[in-house]
Amino acid sequence: MQNQADNAHRGGRGGSSSFKKFDKDDKSGLKRKRSDSDSKKPYDAAKAHADKKIRGETQEMAYQAKVLWEECRNTKLAEEKREESMEKLLDLLSGKMFKMVMKRDTSRVIQTVLKIGNEKQRSRVQAELAPHALEMSKNNYAHFIVLKMLKYGSAQERAAIIKNFSGHVREFARHKTASTVLEYVYAHIAKAQEKLSLICEFYGPEFTIFRDQPKKLEEILKTFPEKKKRVMASLREFLIALTNKITGVIDNSIVHKPLLQYLENADYLQKQEIIGFLKDHIVRFLHTKDGAKAAVICIKFASTKERKDIVKACKDYTGKIAREEFGHIVLLELFASIDDTSLIKKSILSGLQAELLDLCKDKYGHLCVLATMLAPSPKYFFPKVLSLLGPTTYPDPTDATKEISTSKKDAEKRQEEIRTSFLKQVLAIVEENAYDLITDVYARTIIDEVFNLCTDEKTKEKIYDELLMWVNFDEEAHAKEIETLNKPTRKYHPMEEQPELLEVNTDLLTHSLAHRTLRKWVKKDNAFGEKLWVKIQDRLSFYVQDSQASWVILSLLENNATTKPKVLAALKKIKSSLKVEKKEATDNKEVKKTALEAILEILNNK
């Protein structure tokens, strides 16, 4: 027992047999003797000395280059002196530029030469580095040089660099550093034919080798229908590998074109497969035209579970997506295709609500707000956008003659559910910011549609009163009040954020945008016309001669039965003081009739 305890203390498991005492005579536990092949190479003193000498020379050259670099960057230095320093720098680095650009510090030196050097100096750099463009594109530091070469190079020099990328597009598209160079080439430098040459490499190796074949995928599949299977397999392999990358290369627009082409030419099962890989990455590629179209197709053909994943992926970026030129189309498709409106309310509408006022004033954001209230129509949306939206159909797997819709809920019912859940939030924003909305070029369409949909007369009255405060008011007193409020109450540090200055409001009737909305309301609502007339009747002579306000007066006179007799009687009293400035036609164009001229015609006929 004592032996077992001693063995256990030494690290054994309780038995004497479990602990093996080291025996010097037992060679079985020793390591094998190192063979001659494993032996360390002999120290080469001459080689080590030569390497050390090369490193020393390189460091000395880098130091001299940085000294000249500082002189070249000095804008206060005389132009002749800077030119002289630049020539010395190029002579110093001649034949060694490639080695220099691969390092962090010295690569900045070459960037400066390309940025501020003259055409001849840039050409020297281009001639030496262009053959190494592929290897440089993969380097963390040298790829910036390639970007500068493309930016500042001549058309011939750019074409030579782009030509070097031939056969390496698929590889570069998946490389974290090289993909930035490839994206710059595709998005900013390459011409239409060069773009096709780059894209066709995604279709397979043969389209890289045989350049005489048609470049567009539509032409390829039409001319060689037997190649569709190989092309689709090549695209599928690339796209799946792309989604497994963590580097974010799927953000680049050059990969969005092949992605869209695959989805457009894939059958239903192929779409289902690739959507499973893309569902979590949609927010990464919906910012381009091709990427947004691809995202719309993904939403159309995604399963219920995959659509939930897509909505969750967009949840934290709703406001940003709504402001994007192409990204907002993806939100429109979510409203038009997803039947689970409670999911839309929790994940998408809540994100819009957080930034609702800013979105109402945004060029694309206000379209998303409008889409929550009414179905997209040609009144606000382009036909090309409308053609992309809405559910689609796919073949029934059990019966090829039948088609199954990707959405089961009725479109009007879906729209009504979204409108009901979001109209209250929009109304609240309109009540609080009525003046800001009616005077904004985009938001005024929202306030107009809100009035068309609002059925609560009390809410309408409240908004009317809020807006009519800014008709026929004391503008001078208001301007002084704003000036007083904008005066700082204390001194602010230059780095400290100061309060936003308030803007002076102008009369809504004389506002270039607001008066158009008021004209519509006068025609639709007699009650609003009556309220407006009460506010403006004591300054009628001023308003009727204003180029903007006179159109509102004309609407009161023509379309509002309640106020027409009163306006007509008041205008007859001041008819003699009304004057019209006649304009002559120019460039064979007819002069449009002004509102005041139309008013005088009505008065003369009465």
Write up this protein.
With 606 residues, the chain is mainly alpha-helical. It is 62% helix and 1% strand. It is built from 37 helices and two strands. It has helices at 2-10, 45-73, 79-93, 97-101, 107-116, 119-129, 133-137, 143-152, 155-164, 169-173, 178-189, 192-199, 206-209, 217-223, 228-243, 256-265, 268-278, 282-285, 289-301, 304-315, 318-323, 327-337, 341-354, 356-360, 365-373, 383-388, 411-432, 434-438, 443-453, 457-468, 475-486, 514-524, 526-536, 540-544, 549-559, 564-573, 595-605; strands at residues 393-395, 403-405. A two-stranded antiparallel ribbon has the order 1-2. Strand 1 (393-395) and strand 2 form a beta hairpin. Helix 16 (256-265) packs parallel to helix 19 and helix 35 (549-559) packs parallel to helix 37. The longest helix has 29 residues, at 45-73. The chain is globular. Residues 7-22 have low confidence and may be disordered.
